[in-house]
Each structure stands twice: as C-alpha cells, then as structure tokens.
Write a structure and sequence with these properties.
Number of helices: 6
Low-confidence stretches: none
Mean pLDDT: 80
Structural class: alpha+beta
Largest sheet: 6 strands, antiparallel
Order of helices and strands: HHHEEEHEHEEH
Helix content: 55-70%
Radius of gyration: 35 Å
C-alpha cells in the first residue's frame, strides 16, 4: 500500500508539472494575443485562450488538492509502517526470549539466558536474580551482572522494597532511584517477581541501565511480563530436572553397590 501510494503521488506530480507548463504556455499565448489586438478589441481566439486557461487553472487547483491529500496519506502510511516494523521487531524479540528460556533444562544455562535477555533485549547493566527459600522465608541472590553475587545482601520476605515486591507479587518501578549503586541494592530501579501461577519463586532486581538506554520502551514491559512467567517456569523446571537427575545418579550408585 505504501509503495502504491508513492507511485500514485509520482503520477500526480507529473500531471501537476504538465498542467503548470500548459498554464504558462496559455498565459504567454494570451499575453501575445492581447498585445497584438487593437486597444478595446478582443478576438475570439483571446476569449478561447482565456477559457482554456480558466479550465486548466481549475484542474491544477484540483490536482494540488489531491496531491496534498495523498502526501498526508503517505506520511500516515510511513508512520504506520514504522509502527508495524517496530511491533514486528518487538514480537521477534519476545519470541526469541521465550524460545531461549525453554530451550534447555540445564539450571546454569537457564540463569545465563535470563542474564542475556536482561542485557541484550532490555538494556540492563547491573542487576541480580534472587531465588526464594520458602522455609527460611528469605530471598538469596543466585546470579548477577555488573556486580558480584557476594556484594548483594540477602532479603527477608516481606521486608524492604524487594521483599515486599516478592510478598505482594507486584512489579515495582522506581522513578527516582538513589544515585549511588550501593543504595540501589536495597532500593532498585525495577523489581520483577518471578511467578508460577500465584507462587513467587524469586525476584529480578534491576539496579542500573546501560548508558545508551535512557528510558524503558513499550517492549521492555512486555519482556518484564515474559520474564515474570516464562523465566520462573524455566528456573523451576531446570531445578526439578537437576534435582531428579542428582537423585537418579544417587540411586544408580546404590544399585551399583548392591549388585556388586
């Protein structure tokens, strides 16, 4: 549609140019006839040229009106094209992120994929992944980027911004985070609870964005929503798989001992 609109505009521009040239010819012809005719006399040719000139000028105005309308439509088409292209890119990013999260059952690989999604798709520079210990009711940092895991304090469920976000199962966005990174460890820029249905298994805490990332885009919030569900499922599944594999190896070891 956008290409056809461009072609139609080009045709209108050509027709507009032809009519303008024809109007100029008629005006010059009219001037010549008026200069040749005696004062106070007008021949039929002069009247004919004036009539043609009026017709062409009316047609020219009509085409200029159509041209303005088509140009406005082209601008609208161009904006829509950009919007559709952006939506396609966003959908592609969401698909890639979802596919990567469910492409493996290795626990460490799942954590690494979440880190890559946060860096490459969201533009996070410093962040961490907390996992919930239900028995101890505490959140322990399991992985981090831009800061050492040992530098990140554990959080009690229900206490502080991170603990309350996990307890309430609600995303947290801080418009005025502290300037110092150490203060942001307990007052982050973003907190995203990792949830399976209504059960929270952890939290992603974002402390700082990359320098070139000045604000969140619409797709970032979609990615946060994707992380909240898909990342939680991927972590939970990979942990179950790792535990069952470890138990299987243990049982296999006992069976080998018994058979020997």
């Amino acid at each position: 549609m956008f290409r056809k609109g461009q072609e139609f505009t080009q045709d209108l521009l050509k027709e507009n140019e032809r009519l303008r040239y024809r109007v100029i010819q008629l005006e010059e012809g009219l001037k010549e006839k008026l200069s040749e005719a005696p004062t106070g006399q007008r021949g039929p040719q002069v009247d004919e040229i004036k009539n043609k000139l009026a017709v062409y000028e009316a047609r020219l105005k009509e085409l200029e009106g159509k041209l303005s309308a088509i140009e406005a439509e082209n601008v609208d088409f161009a904006k829509r094209y950009v919007d559709v292209e952006e939506q396609n890119n966003n959908l592609a990013n969401l698909y890639v992120a979802s596919y990567q999260l469910h492409s493996t059952l290795d626990y460490k690989e799942v954590l690494q994929i979440i880190l890559e999604i946060m860096i490459n798709l969201i533009g996070a520079e410093v962040f961490s992944i907390y996992l919930l210990d239900k028995k101890a009711k505490s959140l322990t940092p399991e992985a981090a980027e831009g800061i050492g895991v040992s530098e990140i304090p554990a959080v009690t469920l229900g206490e502080g911004i991170i603990g309350k976000a996990a307890e309430s199962n609600e995303n947290y966005f801080n418009e005025n985070p502290p300037p110092d990174l150490k203060d942001r460890l307990l007052d982050p820029l973003v907190c995203i609870p990792l949830t399976i249905k209504s059960d929270v298994i952890g939290v992603v805490a974002l402390y700082r964005l990359l320098q070139q990332k000045t604000q969140f885009a619409a797709v970032d919030y979609e990615l946060f929503t994707l992380l909240a569900g898909h990342a939680a499922t991927a972590i939970f599944s990979s942990r179950l798989f790792s535990e069952s594999k470890r138990k299987l190896n243990t049982y296999q070891g006992f069976l080998d001992l018994l058979t020997q």
